[in-house]
Amino acid sequence: MASTPYVLPLTELEALASEVGLQWVQSDAARVEQARAASAAQTPAVHVPRQPKPVQLPDDGPLVLVETRRDLRQMNF
Asked: Which tens digits make up the pLDDT trace of 49-73?
């Protein structure tokens, strides 16, 4: 089974685009190849793994009650 490459129907696409008021723009094949070659020539960035955060153990000390409400009987209004 040999697969045949798909050929883009450029004339039909240009006609369709012009019917709706658009302009079909084709990429420059030479520039596309230049960009592919340049990206293939670049060395990949070095992967630096993240360091896990140190585990914080819960405090085993006694619980401390903190009063967050003011006693309104002692306030002067």
From this structure: 999 999 988 888 888 887 777 777 7
Cα separation, 62 vs 65, in Å, equals 10
Q: Per-residue pLDDT averaged across 18-36, rounded?
A: 91
Spatial separation of the C-alpha atoms in residues 16 and 21, rounded to whole Å:
9
> CA quadruple 36, 38, 39, 41: dihedral positive or negative?
positive
Query: For residue 18, what are the contacts with CB-CB under 8 A and spacing of at least 6?
Result: 24
**4, HSE (Cβ side, Cα atoms, 13 Å):** 3
State the DSSP H helix or E strand holding residue 50, giving kind and residue range, or none if neither. none
The residues, any chain, with a CB within 8 Å of residue 14's CB and separated by 6 or more, are: 24
> Rounded to the nearest 5 degrees, what angle is found at the Cα of 60, between the Cα atoms of 58 and 63?
105
